[in-house]
Amino acid sequence: MTSPTTAPRRPRTARPKLDAVAAAAVELAREALADVTEPGQVGEHLRVEASGERLVTHVFECTMPGYRGWSWVVVLTRASRAKAATVAETALLPGEDAILAPDWEPWSERLRPEDVGTEDLLPYREQDERLEQGYEATGDEDEDRVAQWELGLGRARVLSPEGRSEAAERWLAGEFGPRQISSRGRRGTVQASCTSCGFLMKLSGSLRQEFGVCTNEWSPADGRVVHLDFGCGAHSETGQDDGEHEIPRAGNVIVDELDVEVVEGGGTEAQAEAAGDATPAEESSSAAAPLADEVPEADSPED
Question: What residues contact 48, with CB distance under 8 A and at least 6 apart?
């Protein structure tokens, strides 16, 4: 008959007792901090803690600018049968709400693509999962010409399938990814995609199935890689039914409005036009007026 097994009991660890002599030596702890700090950097005494047998820790407020939530600590100890405590160490430690620097990361993991400028030089990565070995010359002139010039493989390393996949996912989720098409012109939609735009230049290789380069200088995506389902207001085929079409100006017609036409006779052009617009009644009345002046007066009775 087997006896029941019981789990062994863990020995209880008693909490260290607070040493009265070391706990009362607050001024000794403050003097220790005065030797390692500048005036005004140590605040009031916050608490005292038992760290071990005849070992206590005094905690003081830190008043230095920029160290919110930090505390000064002074560890005091007392030898057996000694009547005075001595300073073991001093330190500045962060609290729960302290402002801390982020965890250190190597520059290769901390550096982001947007941090790199045109003049910056990145180190060579011999093992890059985005690249794979390129085409090696075989000595056959025709075969090498097709691979190096027509297929663009005349490089030491080319994009690997993983590199192409990463680029496609980045472009797909970028600013010039797919957009929703709507003929009603709803907000956030476009009337046509880049697939039917004449300014689209498709990429080579397998990426041409989804991406191309915009060549329209009036488009916000000019010179950028765009998804075939992207679209904008600079599409080459949209806007045909909106408003009147622009009438092209003839190249050999010149409108000159700076010349002044002078009318002979001393009058202005406006006066000449007014004279030409006179009615026949006005002309007859003006012609009859001199005839009235030419009628002789009748003889008086005295003659």
Answer: 18, 23, 26, 56, 57, 58, 59
| pLDDT higher than threshold 50 for residue 288 | no
Q: Say which residues have a Cβ less than 8 Å from residue 221's Cβ, sequence separation at least 6.
A: 176, 214, 230, 232
Q: What is the pTM of this model?
A: 0.47
- Compute CA 119 distance to the chain's CA centroid, rounded to the nearest angstrom: 20
Q: Which residues pair with 59 in a beta bridge?
A: 47, 73
SS3 72: strand
The answer to whether the CB of 101 falls within 8 A of the CB of 70 is no
3-state helix, strand, coil in the chain (%, to 5): 25, 20, 55
Q: Which domains does the chain have, with CATH numbers?
A: 20-94 (3.10.450), 129-159 (no CATH), 165-227 (no CATH)
For 118-177, what is each residue's pLDDT tens digit?
Answer: 888 888 888 899 998 877 666 777 777 776 665 666 677 888 999 999 999 999 999 999
239: phi > 0 → left, psi -120 to 50 → alpha, else beta; which? left
Tokens describing residue 180: 């929703």
Residue 21: which H helix or E strand, with range? helix 20-23
- Determine the Cα angle at 104 with ends 103 and 109, to 5°: 110
Q: Which of 159, 164, 160, 153 lies closest to 208 in space, CA to CA?
A: 164
Cα 55 from chain centroid (whole Å): 56
SS3 for 167?
Answer: helix
Q: What are the b/e assignments for 280-298, b being 16+ CB within 10 Å?
A: eeeeeeeeeeeeeeeeeee
